[in-house]
Each structure stands twice: as structure tokens, then as C-alpha cells.
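USER:
Class, as today's exercise, take the chain set out below, and explain how the chain folds.
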Amino acid sequence: MRLVGPSGEQVGIVPLAKALELAQEYDLDLVEVAANARPPVCKLMDYGKFKYESAMKAREARKNQAHTVIKEMKLRPKIDPHDYDTKKGHVVRFLKQGDKVKITIMFRGREQSRPELGYRLLQRLAEDVADLGFVESNPKQDGRNMIMVLGPHKKKTEAMAEARQAQEARKADAKANPGKSQNAAEADLAEADVAEAEAPAEAPAEA
């Protein structure tokens, strides 16, 4: 076998008995790292430590993995101004998280004869959140509904990184300001944890 030392140095091609002898001498494990090579490659290492580091790397990779999520928000063409602000707030939050948002305008009864109401509402919403997202799919009629898709300017990975930074900043602020009320500090930390977590898609909200 071709043997690699504990620091990555090349020991050379040695018989199995010699490799086992060196492993015992270094108090390390003999681990096959390239079984298909000719001759196979083995390395002297602490196998327990190797498994732990590999698991940590895999965990970090999963943590940083970006999942494309499409949220949905439903509105009525004659939505109340307060309800509109509430819905817009949800759309802003979704876009900040790096998620796409499907906006659905629901027409009922005679409202179906006024598609321009829905079109104007979608245009208004797109303009209101233009600093966070763009129109990925233009408004189009789909039966009794009108649909538009907004895409975020930030990638999901960027949004996740910013959420982690915000969490760290809030935790540092809570520690640096012990005079802050306990409830306020806990609220800050809870908000930071929620921001970092990748929540599942929310159920569609109706006006």
C-alpha cells in the first residue's frame, strides 16, 4: 500500500505489517482513503477525530445550503389600505429572506369584469417593494385570479448570511447592555433566532 503519514507526508509504498507497526508506534489508526488506487492509499490518523470533523463539515454545508422557496400572498382587488400595508409587510419580509413571492389577486362576482383593478394593484405592489425585489413573472389572468411572481434581488445564501450576522449583533448587544430588561433581551434573541432559522413555506394568506 501507499502510506501517508499523520501530517500528510508521503511515507512510501510499504507492506501492511509495516503500516500497522507505524500506526501502533504513533498511537494512530490506519485508514484506507483511496481503495481504488493502485496500490491502495492508506493514511495514519485519529479516526475518531476524522469522523467528527467530517460530520461538522457536512453540518456546516447543510446549514449554508440555499433552498428556493416560493411564498404566496393573496389579495382582493378592493383591499382595505390597512390590509394592504399588512400584506405588503409580509411580502417585504419574504423578499428579505431571499424567497420568491407569488401574488394572487382573487376576483369575485362582477369584479371579474374589472381586471384593470387587479393589474393596477399588482403594479403598485411591485413599485412599493422595488428596492427588495423585481417582477419575475408579469401579471397574467388565470381563471378568476390574476397572478404575478416577484423575485428577490438578494440570493438566498446572502439573506441567510445577513440573518446570522444580525443574530450575532443582537446577542452581542444584549450582553453589552445588561441594564436592558430581561424581557426585551429575550425578545431580541428570539427574533434573531427566528430570522436565522429557515422556516417552512407559510400558508397562503387571504385578505
